[in-house]
Write a structure and sequence with these properties.
Blueprint (H helix, E strand, L loop, with lengths): L17 H4 L6 H15 L10 H4 L5 H16 L27 H20 L18 H14 L6 E5 L4 H8 L22 H6 L22 E3 L13 E3 L7 H6 E3 L3 E2 L11 E2 L21 E3 L8 E2 L4 E2 L5 E5 H16 L3 H13 L5 H8 L9 H15 L6 H7 L3 H4 L3 E5 L6 H4 L2 E6 L13 H6 L10
Antiparallel strand pairs: 1-10, 2-3, 4-7, 5-6, 8-9, 11-12
Helix pairs in contact: 2-4, 4-5, 4-10, 5-10, 10-11, 10-13
Keywords: Cell outer membrane, Membrane, Signal
Protein name: RagB/SusD family nutrient uptake outer membrane protein
Organism: Niabella ginsengisoli
Length: about 475
């Protein structure tokens, strides 16, 4: 958030003078090294696995600490902190340079090695890519719904084998209320109490791949310019879109994560008390319909909901909404695979191992491998063969796999892509319209603004006034 911070490795004496208390900010590289040092010191004393699950689930383990170390080192190697020329003259009042302006590939090598070690530790402890196991489930599902369960449950099935570290003090119950559309079950009063305010911008819906596993703007079989045109659902799409319901082309022929992660007008919503493929809910969100704006404090402003955040076993009952809460996953094995793929590509360039890491995640999501997808369906078939092209693919894959998990906010900053991405307008459907032709028009909701200075947050003015040795971050 702030970049360089003061490191106090020993407490100051209680009788220290005023000037000695006015500490300096230490250079970023020194801050990173100290964080890594502290993590390394902790690892030998941590358990490899939790043995007393009833009382200690959520406790930090060796794999959790090693994963955090890997994430720290990937962050340190990323463009915001590795050779960032924007901070060439960022010095304190002693003339000490707080950012190293020279790019160092060795930082990516250290990150790569830390990721490999963390993956080894996690897999030794039993972590693996999650797949929905319906052998002991009361409700068997089709292959299509099972793929969606692979995706949704890898995040919100608590303590599943993919999760390396969860925070047990998280409040996912209220979050699920905000992510569940009101009127999903119009016959039950309880569903009128779910506000469903969490709204997904259209630009996020655009990011998901086509069913062929490439971006919609790159797929040579997909008509990107026509994505707002209308089409009626048929039985061919019955697991995704309500047959006979008119919706936009943007909702057709998308990757499974699109349907697992997003709720949209006309879209099928599996779970919440209906667990048979042929009796799933579907959303109807145009004006006057059950999921539309009924009150001024309980409606979805874009017309798209983050379904991924809602556990499928929650049940909408007559007078209550029974929720299966879950601790927030801070680190999943898929996250660690993506960090490793990124560090490998940045330090060494494209390789079979990078493709294997990406394909392990894509396979779970029902997608072809990276090379096959780009070779057969992209208008840029050689993209995975270069470091720059594969970097773009890895970053897009990371964004999609970890959507709504709190990663994109920080990834855009460390990649120095926030200036491009966070100056794009926030748009949604025209939710005040009753007809499909009126509803499926992009409506400007908010014009985001992000300047270079926003990559680092400002130091409070009172802190600077109290300590003349604390210099402000650039641009503030």
């Amino acid at each position: 958030m702030y970049g360089p911070i003061p490191l106090k490795k020993e407490n100051l004496p209680i009788n220290e003078g005023v000037e000695e208390v006015k500490v300096y900010r230490d250079p970023v590289d020194e801050c990173i090294n100290y964080i890594v040092q502290l993590i390394d010191e902790s690892i030998p004393d941590l358990p490899q696995i939790i043995t007393s699950e009833a009382t200690e689930l959520g406790r930090i383990t060796q794999p959790a600490a090693m994963s955090l170390k890997a994430y720290v080192l990937v962050t340190a190697a990323s463009p915001l902190f590795n050779g960032n020329k924007d901070y060439d003259n960022f010095k304190d009042n002693r003339g000490t340079l707080l950012f190293n302006p020279t790019y160092e590939n060795e930082k990516w090598v250290k990150a790569k090695d830390a990721c490999a070690a963390a993956i080894d530790a996690a897999e030794l402890a039993g972590n693996k890519i999650y797949y929905y196991d319906q052998s002991n489930r009361q409700y068997p599902v089709s292959e299509t719904i099972r793929t969606q369960m692979n995706i949704r449950n890898s995040f919100n099935e608590k303590w599943n084998a993919e999760i390396i570290w969860c925070t047990t003090n998280s409040m996912t119950g209220d979050m699920q209320n905000q992510s569940t559309p009101r009127g999903l079950d119009p016959a039950r009063r309880a569903n009128s109490s779910t506000p469903g305010n969490f709204s997904v911008p259209l630009k996020v819906a655009d990011l998901f791949y086509t069913k062929n596993g490439v971006p919609i703007e790159e797929d040579k079989t997909w008509h990107y310019g026509s994505r707002f045109n209308l089409k009626e659902g048929t039985t061919e799409y019955r697991y995704y879109i309500q047959p006979g319901y008119t919706t936009a082309l943007i909702n057709f022929d998308r990757e499974p994560r699109y349907y697992a992660d997003l709720g949209f007008d006309g879209g099928i919503w599996y779970g919440q008390g209906k667990f048979v493929d042929t009796a799933t809910w579907f959303l109807s969100a145009k004006k006057g319909e059950p999921a539309s704006k009924v009150t001024n404090n309980a409606f979805n402003v874009t017309g798209i909901w983050p379904k991924k955040l809602v556990n499928y076993v929650n049940v909408i009952e007559e007078n209550s909404y029974s929720r299966e809460t879950y601790p927030w996953p801070e680190m999943r094995l898929s996250n660690l695979y993506l960090l490793y793929a990124e560090a490998l590509n940045e330090s060494e360039g494209p390789s079979e191992l990078v493709y294997e890491l990406l394909d392990a995640i894509r396979s779970r999501a029902g997608l072809p491998g990276v090379v096959d997808a780009w070779t057969n369906f992209s208008n840029n078939p050689s993209k995975p063969n270069t470091k720059e092209g594969l970097r773009d693919i890895i970053q897009r894959e990371r964004t999609l796999e970890l959507m709504f998990e709190g990663q994109r906010f920080w990834d855009l900053r460390r990649w120095k892509k926030a200036v491009q991405e966070l100056n794009k307008p926030v748009t949604g459907w025209d939710i005040e319209q009753q007809t499909a032709a009126g509803y499926y028009r992009s409506r400007l909701l908010y014009q985001q603004k992000f300047a270079t200075r926003n990559y680092l947050w400002p130091i409070k003015e009172n802190e600077i006034l109290a300590n003349k040795n604390t210099v402000q971050n650039p641009g503030w």
